[in-house]
Amino acid sequence: MSADSPAPYGAPSRSDSAPRKPLTLHRLRAIREAGEKIAMLTAYDAASASLLDAAGVDCLLVGDSLGMVMQGHGSTLPVTLEQMVYHTQCVARGNRSAWLIADLPFGSYQGGVEQAVASSVALMQAGAQMVKLEGGGWTAPVIAALVERGIPVCAHLGLTPQSVHALGGYRIQGRDAQSADTLRRHAAEVGAAGAAMLVLELVPSDVAAQISAAYPGITIGIGAGARTHGQVLVLHDMLDITRSPKPRFVRNFMQGAPSLLDAVRGYVEAVKQGTFPDEALHGYAA
Ligand SMILES: Nc1nc(=O)c2c([nH]1)NC[C@@H]1CN(c3ccc(C(=O)N[C@@H](CCC(=O)O)C(=O)O)cc3)CN21
Ligand SMILES: CC(C)C(=O)C(=O)O
Ligand SMILES: [Mg+2]
Predict the structure, then answer these.
(1) Distances in Å between the alpha carbon of 55 and those of 9, 27, 103, 188?
(2) EC (predicted)?
(3) Which residue of 130, 150, 153, 223 is 20 to 30 Å from 143, comparing CA positions?
(4) Separation between Cα atoms, residue 284 and residue 249, nearest integer Å
(5) Is residue 36 flagged as an active site residue?
(6) pTM, 2 dp
(7) Cβ neighbours around 280 below 10 Å, total
(8) Structure confidence at residue 19 (pLDDT)
(9) Nearest bound ligand to CA 68?
(10) How far apart are CA 45 and CA 125, in angstroms?
């Protein structure tokens, strides 16, 4: 968090007058319980963090997608813990009230519990309030160890980009009955291990809906249909800054928006009202 650096855009959306109270895990759960959708976007720097906070985005993700978006790599694999710490520090300075999540990069937790704890401590000391890690099965004891040590965890299942070479590309996951079963089992395991949040990436809408209905925490979808508890996109994709071909689940929120702030407000509003994602345009069938 950033008591030393008031966000230059001032207070966010809901009333446009009173500054928003900082989001906590408790408040995020209350939002879920109230049936309101949760809006998340990636942020890699202080200026965008401040803009997103002002636009009323609930959660900021310092995603290891920065390896592709910021650094120009073809995958997230080259991103280091040191780089994630740096970007998390930048985002924390720009943010005031959004819930701040940072990705554990490839190679910073696959070594096991001890390595995952040390890496997570570095991200939390950089200003993260929650760490995110990819994968199911073997991650359950790692998640439990982090949660026991007071580190909130977001799990990430479906298309897990750090496994791109094992998966054979950025392909939809959980399409056949067996892989959908595995996905449901992994979701139950990371939920039981204490992951308060779960990102579901590029999975059939029906599978994401089933997992969301059973999950003890908050599910956030990206290419996972409309029936998760919230949504996330890569900021540069929804602003149409990314020039490479974009996944079908992306909508360009700059279309018709007079400013970046309006584009991001449009995203928050569309997620809250349930108009994004549109199942027909952005969802995937089994
Ligand atoms: N800029 C950016 N946006 C992202 O969403 C993103 C990243 N980078 N980097 C890490 C991963 C990689 N992601 C990707 C990359 C490609 C597809 C893609 O080409 N999807 C196809 C469908 C594939 C299929 O049907 O199996 C699509 O049309 O959506 C999806 C997600 C999501 N993440
Ligand atoms: C796409 C989201 C979920 C992510 O992990 C990232 O931006 O790195
Ligand atoms: Mg990531």
Answers:
(1) 9, 18, 22, 33
(2) 2.1.2.11
(3) 223
(4) 9
(5) no
(6) 0.94
(7) 7
(8) 85
(9) 1
(10) 17
C-beta of residue 125 within 8 angstroms of C-beta of residue 104: no
- The residue extents of the domains of the chain are 25-282
Mean pLDDT of 17-43: 95
Q: Which of 40, 61, 64, 65 to mutate to test the pocket of ligand 1 (most atoms within 8 A of CB)?
A: 65
Read off the tokens for 192: 């039981």
ipTM for this model = 0.96
Ligand 3 center to 17 CA (angstroms): 34
Nearest to 282 by CA among 234, 229, 221, 235: 221
Measured CA to CA, the distance from residue 230 to residue 38 in angstroms comes to 4
Question: What six digits make up the tokens of 23?
Answer: 């989001």
CA separation for the pair 41, 170 (Å, rounded): 20
What residue has token string 């602003």? Answer: 239
Are 90 and 70 a contacting pair, CB within 8 Å? no
CA distance 266 to 175: 31
Element (H, E) at 281: helix 279-282
**196 pLDDT higher than 80:** yes
